[in-house]
Design the sequence.
């Protein structure tokens, strides 16, 4: 299991946009680190999930920023719903936090609908949009 | 809320007496998010957005209904597992952890919505709104305790 390190964290666990940034010190478990940076794609598209024909539009699954959902919670939900490793889930969580939104997937209508339903069951601000 | 070693494949937590009272009160608030709050899309790009929205509304309504029933069972278990003067034991199958996280986040987000979805500061709240701030923070406390348990192997306790 990971080391225990001492570092400053906000007074309460950080939300995507912090409601309160007062620092305090607490023990938190260290996050697993990798030796080399890894380039993570914005959009995941598996071969079998691509739209069936060129005429069928793709649908984007988008998660939007809000100031209430904890960053750890959002990362966890991405891991559970998409089966992503923590590093990739954190990448998209940070994209939501810093850029206001993240495109999580480009899928067929049915799969995009499924993912949005799952994310909304966790009360994340997720929507589906037709890809232009 | 303190994690205890797993027992027979179940996640075990100890709740102090005040924590139990808070936990029970919060769960009784569920559902808090207004049904119309959750939208399937933000733009005009979906061909049949109304039908998609209806599907989402139905899925969320079913989730709320099932969760209410499960909350009642959980509350009965909490009462049954109450230790005299020493709080209670919360015993969860691992699969229920995700469900409980969803319930708690509904309470957290729903309370924030009732506060007027403030962006950063909670200033000049009317007295009637303090209960929503309290529920939002209380739900967050239990959420983080559950999330932390996911990264702490039982054998390390």
Sequence:
């Amino acid at each position: 299991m990971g080391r225990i390190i001492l570092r400053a964290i906000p007074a309460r666990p950080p939300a995507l946009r912090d409601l309160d940034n007062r620092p305090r010190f607490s023990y938190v478990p260290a996050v697993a680190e990798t030796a080399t940076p890894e380039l993570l794609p914005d959009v995941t598209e598996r071969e079998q999930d691509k739209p069936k024909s060129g005429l069928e539009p793709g649908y984007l699954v988008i998660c939007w920023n809000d100031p209430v959902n904890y960053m750890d919670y959002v990362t966890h939900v991405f891991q559970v719903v998409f089966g992503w490793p923590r590093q990739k889930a954190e990448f998209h969580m940070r994209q939501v936090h810093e850029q206001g939104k993240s495109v999580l997937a480009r899928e067929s209508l049915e799969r995009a609908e499924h993912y949005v339903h799952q994310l909304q069951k966790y009360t994340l601000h997720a929507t589906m949009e037709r890809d232009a | 809320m303190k994690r205890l070693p797993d027992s027979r494949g179940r996640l075990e937590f100890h709740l102090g007496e005040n924590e139990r009272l808070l936990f029970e009160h919060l769960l009784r608030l569920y559902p808090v998010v207004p049904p119309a709050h959750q939208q399937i899309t933000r733009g005009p790009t979906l061909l049949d957005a109304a039908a998609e929205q209806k599907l989402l509304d139905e899925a969320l309504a079913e989730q709320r209904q099932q969760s209410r029933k499960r909350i009642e069972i959980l509350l009965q278990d909490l009462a049954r597992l109450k230790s005299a003067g020493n709080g209670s034991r919360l015993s969860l199958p691992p699969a229920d952890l995700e469900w409980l996280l969803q319930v708690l986040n509904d309470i957290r987000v729903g309370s924030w919505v009732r506060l007027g979805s403030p962006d950063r500061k909670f200033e000049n709240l009317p007295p009637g709104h303090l209960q929503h701030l309290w529920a939002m923070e209380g739900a967050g406390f239990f959420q983080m305790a559950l999330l932390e348990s996911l990264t702490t192997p039982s054998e390390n306790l």
User: Anything to note?
Assistant: The mean pLDDT of chain A is 76. The interface with chain B takes residues 1-2, 12-13, 17-19, 29, 62, 64, 66-70, 72-73, 76, 80, 113, 116-117, 120-123, 127-130, 132 of chain A (CB under 8 Å).
